[in-house]
Write a structure and sequence with these properties.
It is a single chain. The protein has 14 helices and 21 strands. It is of the alpha/beta class and about 400 residues long. The chain has two domains: about 170 residues, Rossmann fold (3-Layer(aba) Sandwich), CATH 3.40.50; about 210 residues, CoaB-like (Rossmann fold, 3-Layer(aba) Sandwich), CATH 3.40.50. The strands form six sheets. It has an eight-stranded mixed sheet with strand order 12-11-8-13-16-17-19-20, with helices on both faces. A five-stranded parallel sheet has the order 2-1-3-4-5, with helices on both faces. Strands 6-7 form a two-stranded antiparallel ribbon. Strand 6 and strand 7 form a beta hairpin. Helix 1 runs parallel beside helix 2 and helix 1 packs across helix 9. The longest helix is centred in the C-terminal third of the chain and has 16 residues. It is globular, with a radius of gyration of 23 Å. The model has no long low-confidence stretch (mean pLDDT about 90).
């Protein structure tokens, strides 16, 4: 169904991509009402934006004609979705701080509709502590985020900060407009392995590919949920429509999970390393004639237990149990020990081919017993779990 998109174009070199974004949205039947910031007009012209959108371009907060015809309050609420692309560091800071000193920031403060942003900036600006604080604030405020991507930038640097491609932003927009049974719910999903450093070049990990966690996030998005996806260094690409937070270690994952709360549901599909090297050296451990190095281990934080005991515990908490024997008994004991609502258990013995494979064979453990699901593709497992979550919440 065609929707009305209020598109705020921020002032960055990626503004040229907004022209392609408008074209793609129009091809899919959506109407686009464009808003140009003062800086954006340095990169794209109002005439080109208006021609592609077949709509008037709004630029000034104190335009008497615009205020008489529609007004910025009505403009902010007449859309089905507000999209900011590119979302510069400055625009994101204004949003996080509640500033309203130009048309774009005032519209973002006045709207009662969902807001999706596509960040775009230099890699150092993206990694800056202030920007990361602002991102976490926006996530907690319910702002949807698409990207940024990793790659080469106009400034010559390489890293995260590239605006997501228009085709991916269109996908995120249409996912945000889905009116499914999980619309309005925020769901946290962890995925992938963690890497615990032994030294700067070696680490402890496991064979998790992250495929099941990614499939679960996609299935939840398809039902309309807003998903925060906290992932270790997985083999598979994360879902582009989720708010993606990339981590390396268990400690970083716990911190990211705490920052993402509150949430209605938490699905802990990540295969978190139980141990780390205590006091991992800053320099590479060298092979010597004196014998083997001695590694002293420390226990990693138990993320599932910590969140189940948290004051911000989600309404539904789902853990995973990767077992190699006595699957149901061990998973049942784990559910009681950790304090979660459900456990998705599976046998990951090498002979099953499940860890790193395309299929899964799970048992869902809950307070009323267990459900033995048939072996199926990981996408099918994800769809079935997402449907169970929707049933539990609605």
């Amino acid at each position: 169904m065609a929707k009305r998109i209020l598109l705020i174009i921020g002032g960055g070199i990626a503004a040229f991509k907004s022209l392609d974004l408008i074209r793609r949205l129009r091809e899919r039947g959506h109407s686009v009402v464009p808003v140009l910031t003062k800086a954006a007009a340095e990169f794209v012209t109002p005439l080109s934006v208006s021609a592609l959108a077949s709509n008037k371009v709004y630029q000034e907060l104190f335009d008497l004609n615009d205020e008489a015809e529609m007004g910025h309050i009505e403009l902010s609420r007449a859309a089905d979705l507000v999209v900011v692309a590119p979302a510069t560091a400055d625009l994101m800071a204004k949003m996080a701080g509640g500033h309203a000193n130009d048309l774009a920031s005032t519209l973002l403060m006045a709207t009662d509709k969902p807001v999706l942003i596509a960040p775009s900036m230099n890699v150092r600006m993206w990694e800056h502590a202030a920007t990361q604080r602002n991102i976490h604030t926006l996530i907690k405020d319910g702002i949807l985020i698409c990207g940024p991507d990793k790659g080469s930038m106009a400034c010559g640097e390489f890293g995260y900060g590239r605006m997501a491609e228009p085709v991916d932003i269109v996908g995120a927009i249409e996912a945000a407009l889905v009116d499914g049974p999980l619309t309005g719910f925020h769901i946290l999903v962890t995925s992938g392995p963690t890497h615990e450093p032994i030294d700067p070049v070696r680490y402890i990990a496991n064979r998790s590919s992250g495929a099941q966690g990614t499939a679960i996030a996609r299935a939840l998005l398809a039902l309309g949920a807003r998903v925060t996806f906290v992932t270790g260094p997985a083999d598979v690409a994360p879902p582009v429509d989720a708010n993606i937070v990339k981590v390396q270690t268990a400690a970083e994952m716990l911190d990211a999970v705490n920052r993402a709360l509150p949430a209605d549901v938490a699905v802990f599909a990540a295969a978190v390393a139980d141990w780390r090297v205590d006091g991992a050296p800053e320099q590479k451990i060298k092979k010597t004639a004196g014998g083997l190095p001695v590694l002293r281990f420390a226990e990693n934080p138990d993320i599932l237990t910590t969140i189940c005991a948290s004051a911000q515990r989600p309404r539904l908490v789902i853990g995973f149990a990767a077992e190699t024997e006595n699957v149901i008994a061990n998973a049942t004991a784990k559910r009681l020990r950790k304090g979660c609502d459900w456990i998705v258990a599976n046998d990951v013995s090498p002979a099953t081919g499940i860890m790193g494979g395309s299929e899964n064979d799970v048992v869902l453990i809950h307070g009323d017993g267990s459900e033995d699901w048939p072996r199926m593709g990981k996408d099918q497992v994800a769809a079935r779990l997402a449907a169970k979550i929707a049933e539990a919440l609605t």
